[in-house]
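Hi D.,

Good news: the full-assembly prediction came through. Inputs first.
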Amino acid sequence: MLTLTLKEQPTVPLEAEVLSPDRLGSLRHDEVWGLPVLHGKRQLRLDEFFEIEGDPSDELELRGDLTRVKWIGRGMTRGRIRIAGNAGMHLGAHMKGGTIEVSGNASDWVGGEMTGGLIHIRGSAGGQVGAAYRGSLSGMNRGTILIEGSAGIELGMRMKRGIIAVRGPVRDFAGLQMKGGSLFLLGGAELRTGAWMARGTIICLKPIRLLPTFSHACDYHPPFMTMYSRHLRELGFAIPYDARQGIYHRYNGDAAVPGKGEILIWEPK
Amino acid sequence: MLRITGGKVYDPANNVHGEVRDVCIANGRVVAAVEGGRTIDARGMVVFPGGVDVHTHVAGAALNFARGLIPEQHRQAAILARTPVRRAGMGGTTPTTFATGYLYAGMGWTTVNEAAVPILSAKHTHEELRDTPIVDKTCCVLMANNEIVLDLLEAGEIERAKHVVAWNIWAAKAYGVKAVNPGGVAAWKWGKDAKTLADPVEGYKKVTPAKIISGLARIVDELGLPHPVHLHCNNLGAPGNFTTTLETMKVLEANRAHMAHLQYHAYGGEDWFSIRSEAAPIADYFNAHTNLTADAGAVLFGNTVTITADGPWQHLLHELTGKKWSNLDVENETGCGIVPYAYKQKNLVNAVQWAVGLELLLLINDPWRVFLTTDHPNGATFWRYPEIIQLLMDAEFRREQVKALPAKARERIILPDLDRQYSLSEIAIITSAGPARALGLSQKGHLGVGADADVAIYNETKDIARMFAYPRYVIKGGEIVIEEGEMRQSVEGRAFVVRPRYDEKIEEYIRPLFQQYYTMSFDNYPVELERVHGSQVRECP
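Then the structure:
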């Protein structure tokens, strides 16, 4: 396993897409030390910012407050990155496979346009988790993002497939223009949840304010909740046992598109 | 001074077809002989006159709007890093200005015609063309939906309309006249289109698309412009539109005309499900009428963005695809629509479009009248021209590509039956000699004594697409720009402008109309000649 410890906070953001098992896994020590990172507009060496220990492999551990380190695990296809601390913007963007775990918080654009793999954040995440980059037609397309804390605006914007689960509250526009996939909002959401959604499922365990363009369809108990609960538990994300019981109010929308999405709001027994 | 020796020279305008002979260059021009100076050993290579693009969109307000609309395509675009001889830039579907010049020259093209410029954004267009290095430039000004011109045609004042058009050409510092969906863009401002040639245009009683087309063609000929009216026909892209195109060509019988991106105007069928190729009747008519030239507007599969002054068509395309759309209204002159688009091999309509472009290039007998374009970036980006050259020169390769089309599409096209293969001479005609002649640029498109020393030298190999994508040498105006496949220097291009004759008093007619209807002050409107960098003015007879 390779361990990289951040020496000190960079003064301006550091773009370090080399921090990925695909890039580091098969290199020699000296090659790893000399990998290029962009500090502002300057291209510098990786070892100017990190103490590097251990042997290169598909396991990678990053230590320190990496709030200003961007693009960690960009496009990775395999292996595991463990971050003991915080992570900067675009964590796991375009990721195709493998696992990223963060013990602290992550910034905006976690898993932007990812197509596979798992990102698990113990703290909170910023905005645009699993979202489409500006101009793109679709965001996350397969893969899983689990957030134990809260999340910012535009959660899962234009996502097509995959799962995002957030334990804490999320801010405005969760599931904006969603095209598919599932959002689990355990801690509720602020305004305009599911705006312009075409397809997909948003499951909310707290009451939320709905847009007027969502209409009530029925009240029922979706059998898939048990399956999803089991699946997420296996990935290390527990859904309250009670949520397997009780009634879910199903709303259809967004009629402004018009869309065939659904928002399920749980009513505890 | 420069001598290119040992290469097979393809200079069809001077009846040279692959002869090994020297090309001598001095002071930026081709000369009969030089004493001393540098020699390029071109053995094993072919020597072409620099390419001329008769129809492309590389500068101006609409293209910039498109650039802004497609960040998702820029993220995938090739990055051109800065080097000591070139600026940083980006390739992709809408390359940045400097990159546009580098990419054209990097392929052996040295002259481009920006095909759609409203006078209102002509200043901007010329500024951007100034920043498009190496290549020489011309541009065509949009006239077929200009309300002052249309009002004059309505009143039957064709003589005055002629002076207005001439004034407009000089005001825009343009080289030719472009007509886009005549009457249709003016009608679009009422939410309508002009789909038939004989019906009056929305908002007018007498003016029909046919009258606009024949009127402008006549005006352009009477003004003696070097390039005939550059026409984008009505009903672009619609199934069954080949009848409109045939009618249009009939209307044009008495005049010269250049039919732009003919591929988009040669479809049969009633709707998107029954669309089929009607390249054959179009090519038959075209072959028999030598007053016409055309460019292919060929399509290649892949992502691109469509940009056209044809506002109503773009709205339809947006509704068809659900892709993002933007619409520009250019006051009393024209409009514009932009929709990103992906041509897919498995899509019936796209497969037919792909075939029609190639069919027209193969069915039109006279290579001097049909030219290689993709209507960049509408059908594909210009830097993909080598792929089309390969499809034209290699029937076997073409047949392989046809096999990958959906079975339904193969029944709707005649491409599988066409065995014609282009020779290198014919490629030199459709990429250089022909378009130069159609543009009336007598110093371009050939390597005779006195021609501009724009030369592309390619390795002669079997891999045609690679051969034309990576020239060994490119010489522009006598300067070696590309050497051994690498860029050595960037030179500035020139802008060709025509000054047609018009009665100075016409300004007295235009000024009050202008003050009443435009948001801009009349005196700020025309582009000053000093603003057009490297301008070369050509007086009309």
